[in-house]
Write a structure and sequence with these properties.
The protein is α/β, with parallel strands linked by helices. It has a single domain, classed as Rossmann fold, CATH 3.40.50. 40% of the residues lie in helices and 17% in strands. It has ten helices and twelve strands. The strands form four sheets. It has a six-stranded parallel β-sheet, with helices on both faces. Strands 6-9 form a two-stranded parallel ribbon. Helix 4 links the parallel strand 4 and strand 5. Helix 1 packs across helix 6 and helix 5 packs across helix 8. The longest helix is centred in the first third of the chain and has 21 residues. The chain is globular and about 55 Å long. Bound molecules: NADP nicotinamide-adenine-dinucleotide phosphate (NAP). NADP nicotinamide-adenine-dinucleotide phosphate binds next to helix 1 and strand 4.
């Protein structure tokens, strides 16, 4: 089976390539932005017309949450319009589309794990553009799968784990917000579950939205503490409220994803966030 990976240089895109040897029957075609710019509908149509693949995993996204407030048009082109064009092109050629989305699309006032059927009241350009992308994907391709995930990190790319390690080596203490609660998710786990679902044939049997994150719940403060504990980097973490760390785009206070639908459908174990963090830190040499 042949799998097209768009946005192949991102965290999830690179993890898919890093673990692909675990799935020898799957042949990956990784394409980065220079090979396929998904904001160009004609490029998508031409690429899909001239390349054979059975599944497209769309890892391309505009993920600069705060910068998106200044680059609304670009964020919408990449996160909202492009997934819809990809979905239509995949449907045309009889290919499956697997797309990723964000916990930020919910942003409701609930203080309990969020379900796929919950209200979506995204705040800010990034979150709104991601929600629109989900809707366009599902409207264009009834067989598409959308995984909403949260707090993604990896040994590749830029993310909270690598920022904490860098700052922790430079400073004696850091101030980190304690009143935003969620679940860190290792991009390698997202990649592995995606390839497992394709390999087992389950991806072809299901469609629609599924929440996916690592197991367990923490604040950014807890996450930072765990990064320093497990890495051995000596840095004190001070808990601060979000009001002391204002950002251009609002963040949800509680965005833990309920994974009941995923578990009932697929029955694949989900790793605990600290175990996955340990694996990532090991890869980073800690
Ligand atoms: N990161 C998180 O914390 C997080 C949380 C929840 C959900 N998600 C979702 O999870 C998915 C994967 O995220 P990630 O963390 O792997 O993202 P990432 O590391 O930021 O990677 C995104 C990739 O998309 C590429 N890209 C951007 N615009 C493109 C375009 N026009 N055409 C082709 N490629 C383009 C980027 O290329 P360049 O390197 O050239 O910019 C980058 O390689 C995304 O859908 C994201 O919204 C992420």
């Amino acid at each position: 089976m042949t799998i097209l990976i768009t946005g192949a240089n991102g965290q999830v895109g690179r993890e898919l390539q890093a673990i692909s040897a675990e799935f020898p029957t799957l042949k990956l075609i990784p394409v980065d932005r220079s090979m396929l710019d998904i904001s160009d509908p004609e490029a998508i149509a031409h690429f899909c017309d001239t390349t054979e693949f059975d599944v497209c995993i769309n890892c391309a996204a505009y993920t600069a949450v705060d910068k998106a407030e200044q680059e609304k048009e670009l964020a919408y082109a990449i996160n909202a319009e492009a997934p819809g064009h990809l979905a239509a092109a995949c449907l045309d050629k009889g290919a499956q589309l697997i797309h990723y989305s964000s916990d930020y699309v919910y942003h409701n006032q609930e203080n309990r794990p969020l379900q796929e059927t919950d209200a979506t009241t995204p705040r800010g350009v990034y979150a709104q553009s991601k929600l629109e992308g989900d809707l366009k994907v599902l409207a264009a391709h009834p067989g598409a799968l959308v995984f909403r995930t949260s707090w993604v990190y990896s040994s590749f790319g830029h993310n909270f784990v690598k920022t904490m390690l860098r700052l922790g080596a430079e400073r004696d203490s850091l101030r980190v917000v304690v009143d935003q609660i969620g679940s860190p998710t290792y991009a390698r786990d997202i990649a592995r579950m995606t390839l497992e679902l394709i390999h087992s044939g389950q991806a072809a049997q299901y469609s629609g939205i599924f929440n996916y994150s690592n197991e367990g719940v923490c604040s950014w403060y807890d996450f930072a503490q765990a990064i320093f504990e497990l890495s051995g980097v000596k840095c004190k973490v001070e808990a601060i409220p979000s009001t002391e760390y204002p950002t251009p785009a609002a963040r949800p206070h509680y965005s833990v994803l309920d994974k009941g639908k995923y578990k009932a459908a697929f029955g694949i174990d989900i790793p605990y966030w600290k175990e996955s963090l340990r694996d990532c830190l090991e890869l980073l040499g800690y």
